[in-house]
TrEMBL record:
Enzyme class of the recorded protein, top EC level: hydrolase
Cellular component, GO, one term: extracellular region
EC number(s) on file: 3.2.1.39
Protein name: glucan endo-1,3-beta-D-glucosidase
UniProt key word Nucleotidyltransferase: no
Keywords per UniProt: Disulfide bond, Glycosidase, Hydrolase, Secreted, Signal
Cellular compartments annotated: Secreted
Length: 463
């Protein structure tokens, strides 16, 4: 299916106001604490409540922050460290004490939804931790069961993209065979308990290893030529979708295609050292702003259409004590004084911005065709990049785009132009059918010719 990404089209304000009234359950944020200047937990809780963020991931189990989030309804992911894994694996009482200390006193007032045991263990090279990871997870699960919290709080671990041996093209996604039975055991646990497979995709690192202009646009959800998967013939228009579909393919190749994927980390640094490419506020704003727009469109990925994968953006604040290059300390969406580092469109009552795209021209109201039945279609000669923006915009406004998803009656022909035409018309028909609602930055026009074909019906109506 044509992939939907950054929004840059006519602003239909009354539709936007309806769609942004509530927070988005699939948008989360990482809260790292390797810092010397973090604001008080109560201030962080208030900040989160002022945003579209519905979930926060902690790398540990800070009781002050967990308590501060009580009663907010914000979902909380807490973590057991890599250093805890040997004890969790070998001693069920250690796991019981861990749950009794870090979960039981706070739940359900604090909405703990997931416990991650370890972070990127499988790609750490530490064979001891790798073999003990599953027993540690199982003991935490048993401790939750004993506290009557099994099923209410899930248990998993977090992986880096390095667990994949193959990821390009997405349809060939597969896990590194050296992990073999260890990965199969972890996935079997995910499948049996309904817990997610948590992964850390970073298009930023893909661009860092291939710093071409076209790669940057592909990573930032900006207009680009796209990349075609030769096996499926799907044209991917952004790296995020390609990475997630590679993970989906890898899960399927091991017989676990129904295991849910959660993005535990993704983000873009807004500054870095002089020798680091792509580390600018402009690029960080483009990635996170367009990512949020993409998630809110609820389009999903080509292989997982119709829903947004739960995604935790890295990170809420900078971590000034982290070692490594400057970029490692520059992922924060907010500053310690609670002001925005840049506007990624996370505040309630506003939509994500679409940086680094041409300013949308003021709408020019076309002359109505007539009072006869009319349809909204793209003008001739409109670029695929602009059609992608129209497609993403329309499907992000709450209309039913399932007919142009795989298996839908309007999926074929599988082109950006065909899918955009259907979505543009459906949005027009679901508005007041005023000519201005078919403007789409002067790329749409009204037609008296019914574009329906075969079983694909384009709704029509009088202008």
């Amino acid at each position: 299916m044509a992939v939907l990404h950054c929004t840059s089209a006519l602003l239909l304000l009354f539709l936007l106001q309806a769609s942004i009234a509530n927070s988005e359950p699939f948008i989360g944020v990482n809260y790292g604490q390797v810092a010397s200047n973090l604001p008080p937990p109560s201030a962080t809780a208030k900040l989160l409540q002022s945003t579209l963020i519905e979930k926060v991931r902690l790398y540990g189990s800070d009781p002050a922050l967990i308590k501060a989030l009580a009663g907010t309804g914000i979902g909380i992911t807490i973590g057991a460290s890599n250093a805890d894994i040997p004890s969790l694996a070998s001693d069920p009482n250690f796991a019981k004490n861990w749950v009794d200390t870090n979960v039981v006193p706070f739940y359900p007032a604090s909405k703990i939804i997931l416990i991650t045991v370890g972070n990127e263990v499988m790609s750490s090279g530490d064979k001891n931790l790798m073999t003990k990871l599953l027993p540690a997870i199982q003991n935490v699960q048993n401790a939750l069961n004993a506290a009557s919290l099994g099923g209410k709080i899930k248990v998993s671990t977090v992986h880096s993209m390095a667990v994949l041996k193959q990821s390009d093209p997405p349809s060939t996604g597969s896990f590194d065979p050296s992990f073999g039975d260890l990965m199969k055991g972890l996935l079997g646990f995910n499948n049996a308990t309904g817990s997610p497979f948590a992964i850390n995709p970073y298009p930023y690192f893909a661009y860092k290893s291939d710093p071409r202009t076209e790669t940057l646009a592909f990573c930032l959800f900006q207009p680009n030529m796209g990349r075609v998967d030769a096996n499926t013939k799907i044209k991917y228009m952004n790296m995020f979708d390609a990475q997630l579909d590679a993970v989906h393919s890898a899960l399927g190749s091991m017989g676990f295609k129904n295991v849910e994927i959660v993005v535990a980390e993704t983000g873009w640094p807004y500054k870095g050292d002089d020798n680091e490419v792509g580390t600018s506020i402009e690029d960080a704003k483009a990635y996170n702003g367009n990512l949020i727009a993409h998630l809110r469109s609820m389009v999903g990925t080509p292989l997982m259409p119709g829903k947004s994968v739960d995604t935790y953006i890295f990170a809420l604040y900078d971590e000034d004590l982290k070692p490594g290059p400057g970029s490692e300390r520059s992922f924060g969406l907010f500053k310690p004084d609670l002001t925005m580092t840049y506007d990624a469109g996370l505040s309630k009552g506003q939509t994500p911005s679409t940086p680094k795209t041409p300013e949308t021209p003021k709408p020019v109201t076309p002359t109505p065709v007539s009072n006869k039945e009319t349809w909204c279609v793209p003008k001739a000669g409109v670029s695929d990049a602009q059609l992608q923006s129209n497609l993403d915009y329309a499907c992000g406004r709450g209309i039913d785009c399932s007919p142009i998803q795989p298996g839908g009656v309007c999926f074929e022909p599988n082109t950006v132009a065909s899918h955009a035409a259907y979505a543009m018309n459906l949005l027009y028909q679901n508005s007041d059918r005023s000519p201005g609602n078919c403007d789409f930055s002067q790329t749409g026009t009204l037609s008296s010719k019914n574009p329906s074909y075969d079983a694909c019906n384009y709704p029509g109506g009088s202008a």
